[in-house]
Amino acid sequence: MKRVRFPIVVKRGSCAVKIYRDRKPEGTYYRVVYYLPDQDGKSHRHRLNFHDLKAAINEAELKAAHLSRMDRYASEFDGKDRLEYARAKDELKEFNLPLDKLAIEYKEARKLLDGVPLIEAARFYEKHNLRSIKRQSVAVAVDQMIAAKARKGVSDVYLGDLRYRLGVFREAFHCDVNAIAPDDVGAFFENLRLSPRSHNNFFRELRTFFAFAQRHEWLSKEVDLLCKVEKQMEKRTPVEIFIPSELAAILGNASQEVTPCIALAAFAGLRSAEILRLDWSDIERRAGFIEVAAHKAKTAARRIVPIADNLAKWFAIAPRNGACVWPHSKDRFFKAMRRAADDAKIKWKHNALRHSFISYRLAEIQDVNRVALEAGTSPQMIFRYYRELATPEQARTWFAIAPETAANVVPIKLVGAKR
After folding, report:
1. Residue closest to 308 by CA, chosen among 418, 392, 403, 400
2. Any bridge partners for residue 29, and if so which?
């Protein structure tokens, strides 16, 4: 075997890298030694240690080739190149960074900007004051917004809607709020494939969320993340109501437990969600009125609704199975209502009990503002959907539907049942 003499010298052009052997009690090391110039042209010694001679030789050959390329580039410098290099070093002196590192950083930035000049990106950054934007994850931002809304006392229905819709958004974006782009939000809506109404509900909740993020400086106020999303036109479905004879048949076939709930929707216009939260104390607290507390109303606004004479009669025969008007589950509530309609052979119409109350109440008193207050909606909604759906005569018939007074029998008394 040929004896290896140290130091081994690996040469490429005029550049040389040396390998030294160093024997120590813990073993033999091979040290690769080479010199690299710094920004000022001064050479500095660099060393790499290896246990294996072959690995040391391979590394030495790589370093020698690299140094040779650098030497070749340096030799190709003409007067213009030297002037540009000197100017570049002078301009970048305040940053104290190697010129090659800055060149690499510039190249990566241009790739990300897809041809947009770096100075334009910097001006955009400065214009929109993005330096003041704080990092916050979408998940934490969603939780903080929901907590803030809860502290403000919004309704449980609204909180539940926020948790659902913003929860879907949170699952789609595991990143900081300021990392989201309009194209990302546009793709999010496309992937949801929602009906127009659900699409618009998501649009509304996300607009509220982005505004919340902007107030907390998690998102620039100059950024419109919804600019690639358009609200959709919702098809207006005609409002359906029950005629008095249909309601009488439904009440006649309803269970004793669900009868007061049907009566509350039909003769006081309460929403299903409001009925499910209602206690008997809300009905008995004020003589002649039902109090719908703010935290039980959909709109988070307290209101009182007059108890019609016939509704008082339905309350008088209603069983009391606890503090709640409906003491069972939401699912059982809707099943009981539908069962009453099925048993009466009446087609169930979605939300028609409340629609019927508003229509007949408007026909009865001819006062849009008052009906809006009692129903917890806006006069605009009354004008848009409920005008001229019923006549005063039909309204009188509707609000005359009452039970007989027998203690254990509940036949329906319907005065002048007409359409």
Report:
1. 400
2. 22
Identity of the residue numbered 302? R
CB atoms within 10 A of CB 42: 9
Question: pTM here?
Answer: 0.51
The reply to whether 149 and 120 lie within a common domain is: no
Q: Provide the β-strand partners of residue 402.
A: 413
Provide the number of structural domains found in the chain: 4
Q: Is pLDDT at 298 greater than 80 in this prediction?
A: no
* Residue 301 located in a structural domain: yes
275 and 407 fall within a common domain? yes
334 pLDDT band, cuts 50/70/90, is very high
DSSP β-ladder status, 27-37 and 43-50: antiparallel
Q: Which domain holds residue 102?
A: 80-127
Q: What is the CATH number of the domain that holds 47?
A: 3.10.450
- What are residue 297's phi and psi, to 5 degrees? -90, 150
Instruction: Examine the pLDDT at 150 and tell me if it is beyond 80.
Output: yes
**Span 263-287, average pLDDT:** 92
Question: Both 61 and 88 in a single domain?
Answer: no
pLDDT for residue 220 is more than 60? yes
